[in-house]
Amino acid sequence: MSDTATATNPSTATRQGAVVVAVLRLMVAAIVAAAVVATVAEAAGRTTINPFNMFGYFTIQSNIILAVIYTIIALVTLRGGTASPALNIARASVTTYIIIVGVVYATLLAPLGAAGGVPVEWANTALHIVTPVYALADWILFSDRARLGFNRLWLVLIYPLVWVTVVLVRGATDGWVPYPFLHPDTGYASVFFYVGLIVVVMLAFGSLVFWISRLRSVLRVP
Length: 222
Hints:
Blueprint: H1 2-44, H2 51-54, H3 58-78, H4 85-109, H5 121-141, H6 158-173, H7 188-213
């Protein structure tokens, strides 16, 4: 009896660890949802909200995508399943986006104070600091990620290129852009320079995320 219990304990512990990781991801998704709702509510109290503007920011969209991907992965884990290759790529991609959000905020926006983030302080911290730090830690620590080949790195660019295309179309038509450096008034030479810079940055951080996927993880998650 004791030999059987000893033999099953490791798998039981691993399963419990997987549940803990799933719950952590659901908690992060809940924090994102609460932060986005709080940000929208605060803006609605000051002005009439245009949802296409409100949700046009890369930070907001990346956090929402992160929450959705984490929720899906958590539910798959709780049901005893494993993430599909497409879900692994999606997780790697959104990890790339959210790390960039954190790095840009820390280096360029945080020094601006209140002007560099969302008005609700705790929501600003959640969307610019908590989720990037957690996403990087989650990717490094937990083993439920696939080893990713660099021949699929281009997939990381799909969402950012769609996002920037929509932004450029809106800038040329209704004049709204989420970030001043993408406004057509600065000249299209400048705009396309920054578009190229976005592509380079995405590929650089995506390469880092893909490289980490090849390393041994710290904690075993089935």
